[in-house]
Amino acid sequence: MSDPHSAPVPDSAWAADAEARARGRVEVFNATRPDGLDGWTMDLRQYEVLRAHVLDAIDELAGPDGTALLRDVVALGQDRYGRHELFPGGRLRNYVTYTKVDLEARGEIERVPGSSPQRIRRRAPEG
Predict the structure, then answer these.
(1) Within 10 A of 78 (CB to CB), how many other CB atoms are there?
(2) Which of 109, 107, 99, 92 is nearest to 40 (CA)?
(3) Rounded to an integer, what distance in angstroms lies between the CA atom of residue 89 and that of residue 110?
(4) Beta-carbon neighbour count of residue 9 at 10 Å?
């Protein structure tokens, strides 16, 4: 796979994520790290909201080419969840960005190579 941000991550990352989920957390994946982990966890409820947001926002914002600008996905997340009880600080930029990196490593979305500003899309199923 040519994109270093995309899956796969080692089995040990998936095992660490399973342990974190048992505690109500999610290990944030990062495929550019040797162990596949970004080094911190996120509350499972926050993660589930933002995972759904990133995937839904790509669908909502995508042009005919199926891609969405990352900055628009982030801005929409801020608009939707900036006052949500799960995000008491009210700033969503890092939450959305880290969730995006995680979803790349999990193989659910991908960056559009060479796009500037960065564009993302759902990853086509393999097979």
Answers:
(1) 17
(2) 99
(3) 28
(4) 24
42: number of CA atoms within 13 Å, CB side? 23
**pTM, to two decimals:** 0.93
Nearest alpha-carbon partner for 107 in 18, 40, 25, 14: 14
- Angle at CA of residue 43, ends 118 and 86, nearest 5°: 85
Question: CA 3 to CA 19: how far, in whole Å?
Answer: 28
How far is 52 from 55, CA to CA, in rounded Å?
5
Q: Please state the separation of Cα 85 from the chain's center in Å.
A: 20
Q: Residues 81-90: pLDDT tens digits?
A: 999 999 988 8
Residue boundaries of the structural domains of the chain: 11-122
